[in-house]
Structure to design on (108 residues):
């Protein structure tokens, strides 16, 4: 279980805290060779974000086997498109998605 104490004011997760929580989750679960794709200043409704595009390219070339985010909204905020990625595109490349929310891991 992950500690909940890293939350910032108003229940938000500052990017530095998100990275620390995600790295701890990866370490605790034997996930190695981690990399971060961060999008400060970009709307999650936009899937043309620079690091999102870089992540998709890394998925297509087989560099990524698991994606972990704090919650589903960190992946994308356009729910139909996010669902398409989570349910169809990622599994098609053999990539699993894990969202950590309120100290509980949800694996899809």
């Amino acid at each position: 279980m992950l500690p909940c104490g890293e939350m910032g004011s108003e229940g938000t997760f500052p990017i530095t805290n998100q990275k620390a929580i995600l790295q701890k989750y990866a370490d605790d679960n034997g996930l190695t060779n981690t990399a971060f794709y961060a999008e400060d200043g970009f709307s999650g409704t936009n899937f043309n974000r620079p690091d999102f595009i870089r992540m998709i390219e890394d998925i297509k070339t087989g560099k990524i086997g698991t994606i972990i985010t704090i919650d589903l909204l960190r992946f994308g905020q356009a729910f139909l498109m996010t669902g398409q990625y989570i349910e169809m595109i990622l599994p098609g490349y053999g990539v699993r998605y894990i969202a950590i929310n309120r100290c509980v891991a949800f694996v899809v």
Notes: The CA atoms of residues 42 and 49 lie 7 Å apart. The longest strand covers residues 96-101.
